[in-house]
Write a structure and sequence with these properties.
By secondary structure, this protein is mainly beta. It is built from 4 helices and 12 strands. It has a single domain, classed as Roll (Pnp Oxidase, Chain A), CATH 2.30.110.10.
């Protein structure tokens, strides 16, 4: 079968996010000019360049207590920075709870009892227990087609790695924390098995 995206769906639920999956999750911490902290997960997220390292995060939808978008987008625009924390399987309940539409003054990390630490290069907190955290400086916000769709492009300035996620050879081992990934509908998955294939030569 097939369907056109500009016509009524032939399904009760849109399968688009199930098709483009699994997707990594950016558990983003931000801080406003007033010092208030925010934490929220975003699954339209990925790395897009190595040198310098750059990432993209899409903010879709909006909150009634924000002029545009959600808390993360507003605070990142205000401060020019944000921190992407990577979540493991053990974080699944807290990550899901942090996605609730709390009032903008809510500090989700404090509410959920998650320990934080200062970032090194940016004025923002990071999750202390995260397997990895990326301190990011916002480069651009692109307004996408459709209501309340925005793409944030950022440069990674500092990378934090949890020591027990590193092998003695210095390899970041994802199986040591089982990255949490987003599927479609209300589904998630975690990665606990990997395999290697060498890139072929022409």
């Amino acid at each position: 079968m097939h369907y056109r995206t500009d016509e009524p769906l032939p399904f009760e639920r849109d399968p688009f996010s199930a098709i483009v999956s699994p997707r990594p999750i950016a558990w983003i911490s931000t801080r406003g000019r007033d010092g208030r902290e925010n934490l929220a997960p975003y699954s339209f997220f990925n790395a897009v360049a190595y040198d310098p390292p750059q990432i993209v995060v899409a903010s879709v939808g909006r909150k009634p207590d924000r002029e545009q978008g959600k808390d993360t987008l507003s605070l990142a625009r205000e401060s020019g920075v944000f921190c992407v924390n990577i979540a493991g399987y053990e974080d699944r309940e807290a990550l899901n709870q942090s996605s609730a539409p709390y009032p903008q003054a809510t500090d989700e990390a404090a509410l959920l009892g998650l320990a934080t630490a200062p970032c090194h290069a940016i004025e923002c907190s990071r999750l202390l227990h995260a397997p990895a955290s990326l301190e990011c400086r916002l480069l651009n916000v692109i307004e996408l087609e459709g209501p309340s769709n925005f793409l944030m492009l950022a440069r990674v300035e500092v990378v934090h790695l949890r020591d027990e996620c590193l092998t003695p050879e210095g390899r970041f081992d994802v199986c040591r924390y089982r990255p949490l990934t987003r599927l479609g509908y209300q589904d998630f998955a975690s990665i606990d098995q990997v395999f290697t294939m060498k890139r072929p030569k022409a």
